[in-house]
Amino acid sequence: MIRFRALSRVLGLVLPLLAGAASAAEVRVVSSGGFAAAYRALAPEFERRTGHTLVTEWGPSMGHTPQAVPARLERGEPIDVVVMVGYALDDLIKQGKVQADSRTPLAQSGIALAVRAGAPKPDIATDDALRRTLLAAKSIAYSDSASGVYIEKEMFKRLGIAAEVKDKARMIPAEPVAKVVARGEAEVGFQQLSELKPVPGIEIVGMLPKDVQLYTVFSAGLVTGSREPEAARALIRFLASPEAAAAVRESGMEPLGAGVGK
C-alpha cells in the first residue's frame, strides 16, 4: 500500500509534464525580412509561454529566388505560418495555399534611404531634394520585394528620372540592401526601415518624402495543410497582440494587430 501511494504521487507529478510535452509543437515559419527584427525579439517569449518550438527561415514575399515564400510553397516545403507582404499573401490565399480566415495584418513599414557608415548624408527632405540626390548618386540599390518593385516601377517615374537612373540602379535579390551599401557596392540604398535598422555598417538618412512614400503592410497566415494548425494560429495571435506592439515599434514599424493601440 505504501509503495502504491508513492507510485501514485510520482505519477501525479510526471503525467502532467508528459501531457505538456505531448501538446508542445514544432511550428515551422517563413518570414519576410521586413518583419524579421520584430519576430526575432518576440519568438523567444512565445516559446517560453507556450512550450512550442519555432523553426524559422527567411525569404522575400515575392520574386523568383529559391528562398521566396511562393517558391517554397510551390516546392511543397513543410511550412505552418508565413509572414509576408499583405498583397502577396492575398495572392497565395487566392491560390488556396494559405487559409483565408487566418489572414492577420501585423505591422506596416515605410521606406528609408541608407548610405555607408561615415559617408555624407544627402538631402532627401523633399521630392526635389530626393531627385537631385538620386541623379548625383553613382549607384542605387533597392530590394527585390515590395519596396523595390515600387521604387523601380513607380517612384523613379513619379520623380521623372526613370531614364536617367536606369543604368546605375539595380535590384538586389535575396540579400538585405543594407549589406550591399555597407560593403560599398552601392552609394545609396532603399528598403523598409525595419530591414535597414538591424544591419551594421550603414547610416539611415531618413524616410522618403510623404508624396513618394509607400507603406507596406506585413501580414501573417496559416499555410493550408499545416501540420500544427492550433499552435500556428496561437503564434499568429501572439504576433498581432498588444503585448507584441512594443517590439514591433522598436523594429521601426507601426503595429496593426487587432486591439493594438497607437
Automatic annotation (TrEMBL):
<dbReference type="GO" id="GO:0030973">
    <property type="term" value="F:molybdate ion binding"/>
</dbReference>
<dbReference type="Pfam" id="PF13531">
    <property type="entry name" value="SBP_bac_11"/>
</dbReference>
<protein>
    <submittedName>
        <fullName>ABC transporter substrate-binding protein</fullName>
    </submittedName>
</protein>
<feature type="signal peptide">
    <location>
        <begin position="1"/>
        <end position="24"/>
    </location>
</feature>
<dbReference type="GO" id="GO:0015689">
    <property type="term" value="P:molybdate ion transport"/>
</dbReference>
<keyword id="KW-0732">Signal</keyword>
<dbReference type="InterPro" id="IPR050682">
    <property type="entry name" value="ModA/WtpA"/>
</dbReference>
